Amino acid sequence: MERPATQRRRLANAIATAAVWAIVIVAQVATGQGQQRKQPERQRSRPPAGAWDRATAETFVPDAFASLHGPRPTFANGARTDSPATPSAAVAPGADVRWSKLVSEETLTDEIKDARARVVGACDTQADFMGGGFEQARTGFGSLAMAFGVIAAYDHEIRWKRAAETARDLFARAGGACQAGSIQSFAESKARLEDLEALLDGDTPQGRPARDSGFRWSQVATRPTLMIRLQEAQDSIRPAVASRAQFGGSRSAVRHAAEIVAMIGEVIRQPDFEDHDDDAYRAHAAAMRDAAIEARSACDTRDYDAARAALGRLEKACQACHGEYRG
Fold it and tell me: What is the pTM of this model?
């Protein structure tokens, strides 16, 4: 038999072990209850008092979490939890345009020289300019800004590419100034003509554009201004395909006009142009662009019938667009 002292030690150990397990069980139960306890609602800031206009009110949503997607992140113990990988955002329309597929260096060079002649005539005298020449100057500077904008974004090195961004912004500013005939807009036009002459002579423009923000295609020229140049290009194609004889002697002119149409068709689809994010509008502009490319191909292959058919598709696309959009 065990001695009384040994029995007492065994009993004391058993009691101590039972007490330890009791403490562990109580702690686990308490922890579970704490985790299941409902978290108090967060206090949200109250919106400012007073009525908001509709534009401001629509900027905010009642519950941001209702508009978010994916699991809500947790930061337990400082650990980072990443949401599942998602595809990258789509590339902005036209961000990867191959401009060389739409318009050649030769056409861009000729367009710049033609626009120069237009602006020179419009700015011959201050009286001529203020009497209506400013409208011609506006179209001329718009054509210049567009051409240099394309040169700046061209997919390989071409003439004037290094100075194209500066020229683009300078001529865009001049076109904006020519919204009205004034002494100030006349002075701006004459100064930009000097910059253009310097470029054509192989020098650097002396003017310095003010770039407050990143470049946007909508700053090159207004859509109405580009529509004037577009209409002129179409008007030059129409009589050139009136007969086979006319087409045979006008193919180079038709080719130039077709590339101008294709270029404008792509430019007006770029971000920030009015309706650029409207699928129907973009489809009309693309149809016009593609028909112009087909007309150019017909010039290269001397295919009169294909040229006439392309012009028909081009005009159909323009009419469809004008039926839905204006300006």
Answer: 0.70
